[in-house]
Amino acid sequence: MRRRSHIVFTQGGKGGVGKTTVITALTGWIRAKGFDPILLDFDNENREKSSFQGFYPEAQKIDIHAPDSLDRVFHFLEAPGTVVIADQGAGSGAETFSWFDRTAEIVQEFADVTSIGIVTKDPGSVASVLSWAYHLGGRVRYLIVLNELVRGTGFDAWCTTFQNRNPDFEDMLRANTLTLEKVINKKHSISWFHSLTRIVQARRYQQEAHNAFESASHILLPSDKTEMAAV
After folding, report:
1. How much is the average pLDDT of 64-87?
2. Gap between the Cα atoms of 210 and 204, Å rounded
3. Class level of CATH domain 2-165
4. What average pLDDT does range 93-122 have in this prediction?
């Protein structure tokens, strides 16, 4: 029997909606659940500190526009029960849609796939999520995250929502490529985050993010289902 693996990826749609912010928080939660996920950064055009690899240097940079780049995911799925977290950049839709058209049925034999879409009050972000859903269809599961500072924007009924937001705190995290875990455990040299106030804020962010992901754990973690290994 082969335990199923799980692939989680951000939709590479409209930029600036907080994809990397969400995926870094998700990585911390999955690690807290006892998994050691493979981290892939397909946003090859973003080589700034704010990229996924900037927060997690162990994340591997892969040029999604290179031939067969998405097929490299299979290299990391050799071991059953593997979790792969991939961050995609803007403009990655065409390659991803084509890959799913050719590969989805094969992947479904041994892995589940969850696509994370981020929406804000910008209608363009909603259009992007709907476009990805149109192309991917029922071949993946979906987690839609409302990334807004204020509730009541009309999406609360169908989104996992982060509350208690602090723009200055988030800006400082991004500017210094710090994860919540690094702030909480003081594994950094940024004095602005050394105060108890900042540590409490980080723990509050972490608690809310973890609670939100926990509510969707059935589509974010490997299932207990197993598939008969090919003979």
Report:
1. 90
2. 10
3. alpha beta
4. 90
Q: What is the pLDDT of residues 154-181, one digit of tens each?
A: 444 444 555 556 778 888 998 899 999 9
How much is the average pLDDT of 53-59?
92
Strands (E), the chain: 2-3, 5-10, 38-41, 60-61, 83-87, 111-119, 141-146, 160-161, 226-227
Find how far residue 151's CA is from the centre of its chain.
22
Q: How far apart are CA 29 and CA 27, in angstroms?
A: 5
CA dihedral 183, 177, 175, 181 (to 10 degrees): -20
pLDDT given at position 223:
74
Which phi and psi angles does 38 have, rounded to 5°? -80, 130
Contact predicate 208/162, CB 8 Å: yes
- Give the C-alpha separation, 135 to 93, whole Å: 9
Domain ranges of the chain: 2-165
Indicate if the pLDDT at residue 103 is higher than 80.
Answer: yes
Is the Cβ–Cβ distance between 194 and 178 less than 8 Å? no
